[in-house]
Amino acid sequence: MSSKSPNSLFGMGNPLLDICAVVDKDFLDKYALKSNDQILADDKHKALFEELVKKFKVEYHAGGATQNSIKVAQWMIQEPHKVGTFFGCIGEDKFGEILKQKAEEAHIDAYYYEQSEEPTGTCAACITGDNRSLVANLAAANCYKKEKHLDLEENWRLVEKAKVYYIAGFFLTVSVESILKVAKHASENNKMFCLNLSAPFISQFFKDNLMQVMPYVDVLFGNETEAAAFSKELEFETNDLKEIAKKAQALTKVNKERQRIVVFTQGKDETIMALSDKIETYPVIKIDPKDLVDTNGAGDAFVGGFLSELVQMKPLDQCVKAGHYAANVIIQRAGCTFPEKPNFS
């Protein structure tokens, strides 16, 4: 099997349609949003989605963190198509059709669990300057069922085909049993399982689910605010990113044949990677502030670039370099979108 064979990269998560708009501070204040955050929508945000569409110029992009990363990885790889597989739940509606169409255009092998009880999930990306505040209304994405989809023989076969697995921490709120089934398969077969801390609220409110999965995690991703929240919840008693990376690396691990790798990005500052017994730092690609369009999707793009090299068994510093390249491309465009072909070597 070539390292770039179809279905060798597997992702599972919340497929969402992003509704992106540049907003003003009044809008953020009205809905009590921080300028740079990710939250789940509750009742007070119901009107937000309607107001966003009415009041501002919106763009729709196929989104959801894991799906974004799988798409970026596929874009970086180019050929063959369908190296990336994606599982998630959508509604039988217009937004669901858009997501299916966009997945096909991105050449990923998306197998959606489709149900009619809930509509396809959406995510409001409220952009101010170079910040973005994300409000996710999971809806259908929250309805993923292990026994209705993951356990089906024809679907599980696709899981078995993969060599690298990636799930964003957001999915911990939906189906921890699905994550554990995939994570255990990876661990038992000495394949690579990757997880993202995704947002501070995951560590704060879903810590038990996160720590159930952590022993199977070979590569842990996060940014500086997520790492700080993780450190606080686990009582690491440090805000030093390098120390947090070391402590996260030292957490219990089931598959002893692979030492955990921890990768923390911090926006325009250097990326930190804990591997074996050392900490490496990697500067990001410099960008002129006037070329910065939208940081929404930068973290997902970094992971996508990283995974595109990881699935080809490339050295880890090359994985980081690819992550930085992909993120640099994505922040110069609206949404998690990219040109036809990458220019990376």
UniProtKB/TrEMBL annotation:
Q: Where in the cell is it found?
A: Nucleus
Which metal ions or organic cofactors does this protein require, according to UniProt? Answer: Mg(2+)
- Major subcellular site: nucleus
What note does UniProt attach to the cofactor annotation? Binds 3 Mg(2+) ions per subunit.
How far does the signal peptide extend, from start to end residue?
none
What are the alphabetically sorted keywords of the record? ATP-binding, Kinase, Magnesium, Nucleotide-binding, Nucleus, Purine salvage, Transferase
Which molecular function GO terms apply here?
adenosine kinase activity; ATP binding
Give one Pfam hit by family name: PfkB
Q: Residues in the active site?
A: 300 (proton acceptor)
| Reaction catalysed by this enzyme | adenosine + ATP = AMP + ADP + H(+)
Query: What pathway, per the record?
Result: Purine metabolism; AMP biosynthesis via salvage pathway; AMP from adenosine: step 1/1
Q: Give the UniProt entry's GO cellular component terms.
A: cytosol; nucleus
Gene3D superfamilies reported in the protein's UniProt record: 3.30.1110.10, 3.40.1190.20
Give a GO biological-process term: AMP salvage
Q: Which domain of life is it from?
A: Eukaryota
* Summary of the function given for this chain in its UniProt record: ATP dependent phosphorylation of adenosine and other related nucleoside analogs to monophosphate derivatives.
Known partners and oligomeric status:
Monomer.
The family annotation for this protein states: Belongs to the carbohydrate kinase PfkB family.
- Under what name is this protein listed? Adenosine kinase
Organism source for this protein?
Knipowitschia caucasica (Caucasian dwarf goby)
